[in-house]
């Protein structure tokens, strides 16, 4: 399908910028609209599993990524109370060999800058900053570019304004969990952290993920606990009350981990919300991707990866289909089963990571019986998605 009208993309995050780049590589012009007046550093660390890094490398971003990310040698599960190792999945060179792409960790702002630079240098992409979509998106975009877009892609995140234009779209739902994101200077890291692996520390009702950020020389920490959203805001800096809740969730953890959490800086809390089911497009000219369509909890570390996969599949469907409705239908048929399977994996991980009592004991016994290769094989469907057949 080759439309004379450009594709308009609302949102210049990972989903929107990857979509713009993917469509441009297929010869389709894009107009990207972002409500922020400038794109500043956002978020904290980010894991790029092989199913996502493969796509970014196909888009020509491999050298830029390798200049800033680290490739952990393993993904390890550790008891948060005793620091006893529970299981480990090989990564590093083994990830490249097994899943035909690297497993990298980096700052989210670094990925956004890489994508932004690539979009800025692509003649078929134009970026419009400071455009807030408060009314009919097609009218706002038409006024801005003096042409009516052929397709509008809503890539504006979990609090998407574009979702209101999709009949039957799902609503945002609070998951019951809070994510705390913190940065730990390398000099203050305890001996249980190393410069190589991604480590998930597990305990009843909470878990902590830690991995090195090459750009800062420190560690990204993400602590996820049961909790409730704020009455006034959905995300923010820590307060005394919030810090007390946070400390209480980890009071039975190993002293080394508690000390790290106490000294870590830049603490922000984020009530974790999801967008489950519902319609993703209007069957005519508007479609949602990424968190705008299907935000999920981070228990499988696949939020950014699903947005990147969405971008590639949408570019493929818009290129191969004969018309927009059939392109949207093909996209939906390709992505919905994949998203639901990843969502189920995230739900399973939440159950396993936060297990208590007899379930926790059973979990540890199961992990003890599985070797690293068996655990890696369990992830083939996830990390090997889109890899060349061997």
TrEMBL record:
Keyword Signal: no
Pfam families named in the record: FAD_binding_3
Keywords, ordered alphabetically: FAD, Flavoprotein, Monooxygenase, Oxidoreductase
Gene3D superfamilies the UniProt entry points to: FAD/NAD(P)-binding domain
InterPro entries xref list: FAD-bd, FAD-dep_Monooxygenase_BioMet, FAD/NAD-bd_sf
Keyword Flavoprotein: yes
Family annotation (PANTHER family): GERANYLGERANYL DIPHOSPHATE REDUCTASE, MONOOXYGENASE
UniProt name for this protein: Salicylate hydroxylase
Gene source species: Sinorhizobium saheli
